[in-house]
Amino acid sequence: MKKRSSTAIIIGNWKTSPASLKEGLAFVKSLEKKLAAKKLAKLGYYLAVPDLFLSELASCAKYGTIGVENVSGISTGAYTGLQTVHMAKSAGAKFTLLGHSEVRARGETTEDLAKKVSQALSEKMMTVLCIGEAKRDAQGNYIAELEEELRKDVSMVNRALFENLIIAYEPVWAIGKDVAATPSECFEAVIAIRRALASLVGIDHAKKVSILYGGTVNKDNARTFIKEGGVDGLLIGRASTSVSTFAEIIDSCRRRE
Ligand code: PGA
């Protein structure tokens, strides 16, 4: 089974950016030039991009790993408008996000999501599963909510397939806002997630699953999550759509220690 990486895993979630393929290609070229100039190219980076731009961005990226923001749980059949994991892989996707709260809010059910997670992992697609509580309560009930969410989302997955799973802790109350979670709030959730993973697949497998934080990450707070929040990397929305900010974040998170 893979080891957790000693380099922070920095993933941009582009959502509906950029407006055109031309801008996307210019972004990747400019980001890679900047990283190369700072001798950071080897660290790499990840970008979850709109499906329509996947193939060309994947061909353009030399140091980056390009993935998709969602994928269906079906392998083939009469499903107008859906795309399969196999299609995404053949167009160059090396990973997929799944279970993002914005997708759940549009009606993705836990059952749909569990199928997607199982389909992606069974096709050996690296899967970044997003989980997070809607709000925090003083009694700490959100911890049980998180654990339950995780358990349901991976309920169809064989433990041998966990090696391609990454969990992104994304508290819904901190996504797209002005204020992020604090590193200690993040740390608490990471412990709960690791404990839930251990009870699902055993401690040895659980220790090897990388956990990321997402929700209003910016260049000023990024490193504190890595240093004090107990995470192996970050999932970044808005701040991943500016070349200079994204490059600064990659630079500031160079090592996990
Ligand atoms: P944000 O988005 O960084 O803009 O808060 C994070 C996400 O949606 O993954």
For the biggest β-sheet, the strand order reads 3-2-1-8-7-6-5-4
**Biggest beta sheet attributes:** 8 strands, parallel
Query: What are the low-pLDDT stretches, counting only 5+ consecutive residues below 50?
Result: none
Q: How far from one another are the termini?
A: 22 Å
**Helix percent band:** 40-55%
The CATH class assignment is Alpha Beta
The amount of beta strand, in percent, is: 15-25%
- Report the CATH architecture: Alpha-Beta Barrel
Tally of alpha and pi helices? 10
Distinct bound molecules: 2-phosphoglycolic acid
Structural domain tally: 1
The CATH fourth-level homologous superfamily: Aldolase class I
Mean pLDDT: 95
CATH topology assignment: TIM Barrel
Order of helices and strands: EHEHEHEHHEHEHHEHEH
**Overall 3D shape:** globular
Roughly how many Å is the radius of gyration?
17 Å
Structural class: alpha/beta
Report the count of strand segments.
8
Describe this structure in words.
The protein has a single domain, classed as TIM Barrel (Alpha-Beta Barrel). It is an alpha/beta fold and 257 residues long. It contains ten helices and eight strands. The protein has helices at 21-37, 51-60, 85-90, 101-105, 110-122, 141-153, 183-201, 203-207, 222-228, 243-252; strands at 9-13, 45-49, 64-68, 95-98, 126-131, 165-169, 210-214, 233-236. Bound molecules: 2-phosphoglycolic acid. The site of 2-phosphoglycolic acid has 13 residues, from strand 8.
Compact description:
With about 260 residues, the protein is of the alpha/beta class. It has helices at about 20-35, 50-60, 85-90, 100-105, 110-120, 140-155, 185-200, 205, 220-230, 245-250, and strands at about 10-15, 45-50, 65-70, 95-100, 125-130, 165-170, 210-215, 235.
